[in-house]
Design brief:
This protein has about 550 residues and is of the alpha/beta class. Helix content is about 35%, strand content about 15%. Strands 1, 2, 3, 4, 5, 6, 17 and 18 form an 8-stranded mixed β-sheet that branches. Strands 7-16-8-9-12 form a 5-stranded parallel β-sheet, with helices on one face. The chain has a 3-stranded antiparallel β-sheet with strand order 13-14-15, with no helix packed on it. Strand 14 and strand 15 form a beta hairpin. The site of NADP nicotinamide-adenine-dinucleotide phosphate has 26 residues, from helix 6.
């Protein structure tokens, strides 16, 4: 155990909201929250405010979730830092006090921020670290969730809230020989805390998603040579990261009340100026300056502030896709490499567009080689490196930037069992079935933060998280005020939500593309759009209306 782990374990043993424990019995709480990232921290604060006894179970040795695990070189957020934080709903003081150093904060700074929040809000004392949940079973007789940990201990609670993140179960493809490699293997989502020494090494990087796009330029600066195995090129937008200007940050702080409100009611959780207009209604000469301005600005403005119908109008999408392809070809010196990097098999934004800060330029370096893993797939990992049908690449290290079993991987791994022994993965065998993405029938008093069929990853995460947490806390408050003990969605309400979710998805171009949003990156995973794409603002309104109607669609009963 590291000294950090020892410290956190000791701290966590002094839980403030005293659980009721008898000899030989599991510690009992009003609520158990799984995960101590953005979601778990805010959920803990919100439930403590209601006076509940709460325990957070966190498998890591510290807070941070995504930002605890993803320590690969170049890791930073793709939302602008000033919006990638808790709003005044968590604490006005923290919002005023915290200052970001860059337009897009790097992982160490975001982790420092979450630690700062944890300490400032005195959250640590209710968090149990190194606590991996291996089972969570609902006991209808007691109306309690019994939660088992990897160390054999058990806890129980009336409410179980999962705050496990959308991208927390890493995916390493099952290449033949994957365990035979004699060098060092790393997955970006489980990067060693002590770092990886890649200086002067020959490195294979597999994958070209948002993670690899951040990691490749940084690893290329240290390594002797980097081979990037690309199966699908992406539409990478320039991030144009830079130090955060003090006057800009001050103006944002002054405008926060309006900006948060705008973000909460927006499509994607960001307070951008979205003009309702189609690219096809503009001539190429009119479109060009609009595209150029967004390209120069950098960030998701390209997708959100140019034209508003890319996800529903293929002709409109073709215009922006072609513009980005042209930019890629311009940035990459070798025409053949530029052509390989230009995506042609899917429309813009039907896979998550990465933000790049030096990714395309990295391919102008002599020590970076792009390989086409679609045309010449990886056949096996050997003790020496990566072998394709054409060659064997001898390397000292392999970096798997191969993504995650998103949105359901971690939930299924927790062994969640509802009423009558129903396992969550069996209930969702053909795809998630939820009411508002927050609840699922057969699993009373289980609440899922940023779960499938809620906006989650289709949003700037903190905005989606705050809405989810506040809705769950509001419901629990309502239940307590009305002496209600059990919350479970009615079948009809759940069916209607799933149908609505699917209808919204079907109206977009998203289902046509193989993406992790569609579950297409994991063999055998049901193909369905996992996040809700109806918009953060409209989703908020729907949830608010449900609450105002006494949580319509939920069956609320005394214990
Ligand atoms: P990802 O988008 O799923 O990308 C995984 C990459 O690995 C893809 O290029 C994929 O190719 C490739 N791959 C998977 N299996 C392969 C195989 N058998 N052979 C060759 N290539 C293979 O994962 P990610 O890059 O970790 O990003 C996941 C998500 O995390 C992002 O979309 C984003 O939402 C989030 N993220 C956020 C930030 C941020 O905001 N700071 C940064 C990084 C990531 P295919 O495309 O062909 O499947």
């Amino acid at each position: 155990m590291t000294s950090e782990n020892q410290a956190t374990t000791a701290a966590s043993s002094q839980a403030s909201t005293a659980p009721r424990t008898g000899q030989g019995q599991a510690a009992e709480f009003d609520a158990i929250i799984v995960g101590a990232g953005f979601s778990g921290l805010y959920m803990l604060h919100s439930l403590r405010e209601l006076g509940l006894s709460v325990r957070v179970l966190e498998r890591g040795g510290g807070v941070g979730g995504t930002w605890y695990w993803n320590r690969y070189p170049g890791a930073r957020c793709d939302s602008e830092s000033v919006y990638y934080m808790f709003s005044d709903h968590m604490s006005r003081e923290i919002l005023d006090e915290w200052n970001w150093s860059e337009r897009y904060a790097a992982q160490p700074e975001i982790l420092r921020y979450l630690e700062f929040v944890t300490d400032k809000m005195d959250l640590r004392r209710d968090i149990q670290f190194n606590a991996k949940v291996t089972a969570a079973a609902y006991d209808a007789g007691r109306n309690r969730w019994d939660v088992g940990l990897a160390d054999g201990s058990t806890l129980s609670a009336r409410f179980l809230v999962t705050a496990v993140g959308c991208l927390s179960a890493t995916n390493t493809p099952k290449f033949p020989g994957v365990d035979t490699f004699a060098g060092d293997s790393y997955h970006t989502g489980a990067w060693p805390h002590e770092g990886a020494d890649l200086a002067g090494k020959r490195v294979a990087i597999i994958g070209t998603g948002a993670t690899a796009v951040q990691a490749v330029p940084e690893i290329a600066k240290q390594a002797a040579h980097v081979w990037v195995f690309q199966r699908t090129p992406n539409y990478d937008i320039p991030g144009r990261n830079k130090p955060l200007q003090a006057d800009y940050a001050a103006k944002v702080k002054a405008d926060y009340p309006d900006l948060w409100q705008k973000a909460r009611l927006s499509g994607f959780g960001l307070p951008y100026e979205v003009e309702e207009r189609s690219a096809v209604d503009f001539s190429p000469e009119e479109r060009q300056p609009i595209f150029e301005a967004a390209w120069a600005k950098g960030g998701f403005y390209m997708g959100l502030e140019t034209f508003s119908d890319y996800l529903v109008n293929k002709d409109s999408n073709d215009t922006v896709s072609e513009f980005i392809r042209g930019k890629i070809r311009e940035m990459v010196k070798d025409p053949a490499t530029g052509e390989m990097l230009a995506p042609k098999d899917h429309p813009f934004f039907t896979k998550r567009p990465p933000l790049e800060n030096g990714y395309y330029e990295a391919f102008n370096r002599d020590n970076v080689t792009l390989l086409d893993a679609r045309a010449v797939p990886i056949e096996e990992i050997t003790p020496r490196g990566v072998r394709t049908a054409e060659d064997e690449y001898e390397v000292d290290a392999i970096v798997y930037a191969t993504g995650f079993d998103a949105m359901t991987g971690t939930l299924f791994g927790m062994g969640i069992t509802g009423r009558d022994g129903l396992r969550l993965q069996d209930k969702w065998a053909d795809g998630p079935q939820t009411y508002l993405g927050l609840t699922t029938r057969g699993f009373p008093n289980l609440f899922v933060i940023t779960g499938p069929q809620s906006p989650s990853v289709m949003s700037n995460m903190p905005v989606a998280i705050e809405q989810n947490v506040e809705w769950i806390a509001g419901l629990i408050q309502y239940m307590r005020a009305h002496d209600l003990d059990v919350a479970e969605p009615a079948q009809e309400a759940e069916d209607n939500w799933v149908e609505h979710h699917n209808q919204v998805a079907a109206a977009t171009l998203l289902p046509e593309t193989d993406s992790w949003w569609m579950g297409a990156n994991i063999p055998g995973k049901p193909r369905t759009l996992y996040p809700y794409v109806g918009g953060v603002g409209p989703f908020r309104v729907i949830c608010q209306e449900v609450a105002e109607k006494g949580y319509e669609g939920l069956m609320l009963t005394p214990g």
